[in-house]
Amino acid sequence: QVQLVESGGGLVQAGGSLRLSCAASGRTFSGYAMGWFRQAAGKEREFVVAISWSGGSTYYADSVKSRFTISRDNAKNTVYLQMNSLKPEDTAVYYCAASRTITAQAMGVMLGRDKDDDYWGQGTQVTVSS
To answer: What percent of the chain lies above the pLDDT cut of 90?
Structure first.
């Protein structure tokens, strides 16, 4: 089992920045692709960004490219999401996710399946005011 706990959400004005963290516990962190997803009120959950277990490969949704940056520190079992130039449309609950059975490039498929070895955090609210 892997437990994921997100932190760092909050209220920020448009154009501002936030840094989300996701701390993993319960099992070795290496070998897991990690990602961030988000769900706005009344909308479906969507893929935001993913990072390979080595940290060498990252994949971004077009809507956040050049504004968001994912990174990970395997020594601390933590993945980060630096969000800059935030927009009101970035308002959502942000979820951390982990899987050893799919690559970072394919992490979007987690949205369409329910597997015991896919892990999700409880989410952290990000609100961007205009």
So the answer is: 86
